[in-house]
Amino acid sequence: MNDPRAVGAQIRSRLPSLTPLEGKVAQEILARRDITTETPLKEIAEKSGVSEAMVVKVAKKLGFDGFRAFREGLIAYYTSESAALHTCITPEDTAGVIVQKVFRTAMQALEETFAILDLVAFERAADYLYRAKQRDFIGFGGSAQIARDVAHKFLRIGIRASVFDDAHMMMMSAALLGPDDAVLAFSHSGETAAVIEAVELARKNGARVIAVTNYSQSTLARAVDVVLCSTAENSPLLGENATARIAQLNLLDALFVEVAQKDRASADANLARTMRAVKSKRRT
After folding, report:
1. What is the CATH number of domain 5-84?
2. Could you report the per-residue pLDDT of 261-282, keeping only the tens digit for each?
């Protein structure tokens, strides 16, 4: 983890792989801002109410070589500009403070999502979507709204996708997919049962599947061909989902551009055609 901005994001993305106790310890340590290079393992363990061996175990499951690397990573993260962007909203905050905190939290999500982006996975996802004959974009709730936004962008350049936010429709379409098709599955938690079931069926039939999620170790992430991770620090009022949505929309905007670049001439021609088609609907 050479980029300090990626430390917090990497830790949060791996939380689902931890046991409830390990997750509690990880979140307690991540929430601390007083850790220094002099903070001993014993102190961390005592404040978390666990053994020193448990802290080391958690550090390794989070991707660090051991406690010292974990401690150094946290110190680098908390002194980064990215970590400083996030502060919780309080009942006493004025309108000006609220606007500042909401915008800065969104900026943090963008910075950290960019820091953890796997460019190899990103390019594979673009290739799968570009080459696919049929594209299914699936998700529920807020995730479905992101899927619709992305499908709209792709339609503008002549790349069609079907959006499903109904469990039965997802499964019916997945049953008809094959090796020439692709699925773009959205789930913030990566644990949405209906999405996972549709993804598993689609992959069984040979389709390529891309997941957009906040957790790299989630059930959905383990069930797909390519994982694109967004990240957001939890906020009691805003919630993790709301902030992550900003990062996901930007991530998918980049994916849209990458796909368009694969045949820029066709993309530009189709964009001009679709813009002309709706121009008559605008009042000038």
Report:
1. 1.10.10.10
2. 999 999 999 999 999 999 888 8
Q: Which residue has the tokens 């709209």?
A: 152
CA distance 243 to 233: 8
User: What CATH number does domain 116-278 carry, 3.90.226.10, 2.60.120.200, 3.40.50.1820, 3.40.50.10490?
Assistant: 3.40.50.10490
β-bridge partners, 209: 183
pLDDT at 241: 67
- Given a cut of 90, is residue 225 above it in pLDDT? yes
The pTM assigned to this predicted structure is 0.85
pLDDT 10s digits, 9-55: 888 878 878 888 888 888 888 878 888 888 899 988 988 889 989 99
Q: Which amino acid is at 222?
A: R
Q: Are strands 182-186 and 162-164 parallel, antiparallel or unpaired?
A: unpaired
pLDDT for residue 57 is more than 70:
yes
**Closest by Cα among 81, 89, 88 to 108:** 81
**Domain residue ranges in the chain:** 5-84, 116-278
Q: What is the torsional sign of CA 144, 150, 153, 154?
A: negative
Element holding 228 (H helix, E strand)? strand 226-229
The amino acid at 114: F
- C-alpha span between 187 and 138 (Å, rounded): 9
